[in-house]
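User: Structure please.
Assistant: Input sequence and predicted structure:
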Amino acid sequence: MKDSLENAKEELKRIDHLIYVTLKYTRTVDVLASVVERMINAMEFAIDSLLKLAIEQKKADDVPDIPLLKAQKVKEVYTQKIFAENIDRYLMFRKLIRCHFGKKSEYRRHVTLSAIVDEKIVEINIDNITEMFHSMRKFIDSVSDLIKQND
């Protein structure tokens, strides 16, 4: 449980560097895609921590093997708004990274990764990926607080 949480925090450090250093200087869609992939990894580690905590607290019986089922299980067990929002974003990111995505304003300040996910156009740029990163950081801090309360 704590190992998964530490792995999530390590991914956050990598995401932080990608956003505030790499993306600042390269401004490419590939870097945005890399940030999304790292966010997916960090969320998976946080989800694993939450499920291990749920089993320890006897709120769940088992941990599913499939990432989609894991995410749904977390939404069932933990009903707080921050968990639901971040799990939904995680699921959207998983769909986004599998899509063919377009590039707009590459090498410029407003570099944008765009794709069609669930029949909606999703655009990821420097500003909204930074907001999502801060939201994810709060989510992982909440997971950390829950684990500390359980110790």
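The chain has one domain: 2-150.
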